[in-house]
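Risk register update: the risk that structure generation would not scale has been downgraded. Supporting records follow, first protein first.
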Amino acid sequence: MSGHRAIIEVGPGEIRRLCCGPSMAADADADASEIRDAALHAIDDCVGLVEGRPVAVDALWSAALRSLDCATDGAGNGTVVVHPSWWSSSRVGVVTGAAKSMPGDVSVRPRSWLLSQASNADPEAMVVVEIAERVVAIVGAETVGVPRGVEQDLVAEEVATVIGEMSSGTTAVVLIDVPSTVAEASGLAAAIASEVRKSGQRAMEIDAARLSRLAASARTALPNRGESSQRESAASARGVRSPRPMLRGLAAAAVVFAAVAPVVIGAGGRGVAPPTTAPTTFLVEGRVALTVPAYWTAQRVLAGPGSARVQVTSPADPEAALHVTQSPVPPDETMGVTADRLQRAIGSEPDGVFVDFNPSGISAGRPAVTYREIRASHQVRWTVVVDGPVRISIGCQSRPGGEDKVRDVCEQAVRSAHTIR
């Protein structure tokens, strides 16, 4: 195939056509716009809402992408769908599945592929910086996530430090994405560019208008970094890792990352080495973030015994799992008050279901309320901590006698669990 291919952007804040023939009429369709918004907001769920009606997310995404189909605009060379480079494999899987429903030749590539076309530098000498609402992703030899904290200058310093460590002084150009849909992205991009230039490196800021121009001239018919670069393929497979210990207690990233042997953030904001080098995922649910195994399956559980929760299950054993629940608490709530609340709730349950209640326990080095839940086919060891305005409960499930198989996973989750502020 030769010639230009249409490009559709999915995320970080919208689904839109970056370039596609002479007509952009589809973008003005209010119904299609609502479907695209619903698809993006529900990408981590099974069902989304359109006009109050539940719609399967796979169907939503297929409809969203088809609403931007360029076949009628004379762009007959196919379509490229670009997604944030830091998106989890599950999100990319949703997009890829939906892309298969589009007519013609469709490929799915990371956003860094398009951004990298702003420079003629050797791909090995490029670093792409993607700014999202709560994280800055640095895409180079690997992908590193830096949480966005309140102090913009501190985030910029941390990003520049990571780039320096990643490139070892060999980076020719740093390409900084400035998406119009992300709050304060322009100011943060400028701060990052300034910090990068202090170290003698080149920095190039790419705003929405420039991204559209890149899309219009993109070399989509040629081999690209998304397909031909072993480095990018490896980074995509690994996903995003957390950087070295965050400086000055930066808040955690509110995204789902894949990671390899990350440094995770404990309740005090200090980096803590994980107990295992198995691939992990930085899971975010509501206002809580924590580290879980990368290849375990996460799902929301709304029915059955216990509170609504996220369950993360081992692919090797359905009885090996983590459970995560959260509840808002008054800012001044102490562990003693939390223990009293839990003890009253547990007291209303049948005898023998909840045992070993300890109001002053220690779990993974953190003060916690601990207890054990006994079920027919498994047991769950619960750890409850309070981090600011949120009570976080982490349940470590295993078969009877199989506690050792989830011990490291459990400790890692408890150690890393914290509130996103």
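Supporting record for the second protein:
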Amino acid sequence: MTITRIGTAVELRAVTKIYGTGESAVTALDAVDVEIPPATFTAVMGPSGSGKSTLLQCAAGLDRVTAGEVVIDGTTLAGLSERALTKLRRARVGFVFQAFNLIPALSAEQNVSLPLRLAGKRPAPGQVAAMLAEVGLADRAGHRPSELSGGQQQRVAIARALVTRPAVLFADEPTGALDTAASREVLRLLRTAVDRHAQTIVMVTHDPYAAAHADRVLFLADGRVVDSLAGPSGASEIAVRMARLEER
């Protein structure tokens, strides 16, 4: 089933995030403007301390901004109560992190169905099985995380993030804990989700190879978007841009 969306999946409007106060204050994001079109794959890169993870946390509604606005799938986050924000994230946002964050006592099938159950919904017949099949784990539905490899666990995490067909999937270093073969499979699955299901993905990564799977790469430095690259030709082109940032 293909999901078609209109408008903008995520918008950051003059978003500033400051941690601390007074002389100890640190500006992690400095008046950032970003628009993420639907059905696109955006990678976010930058040197250590550039604000990559903070951008993801704020864009996903996991952290409140100091100034500016964040809009997810047409809903402005400012003014939402914590309860309303939680409901919005459950309904419209998916997450994949470097740590798989699976529940050890639950099977792969139960882990994937968890977002639906937390939202008070009963999975449709075959819905969870279809998601596991989509990530190549139809025969691992009854296995617990300890019985799966790292790559398989991350694929379960991807199925869990996508089972609600969220407006946007945020991925924070999703291949950071995986070997080369597992990383390539995860990146293939993310790319397929965009191309086949019109999924919107925003991925923070330090890896030029991973970023090369995206439609666009945003480069951050000192809390600002300082460069972007549409349709990257490959990892080497991205690595050159990164090298320039690190020389600043």
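DSSP finds eight helices and ten strands in the chain. On this basis the risk owner (M.S.) recommends closing the item.
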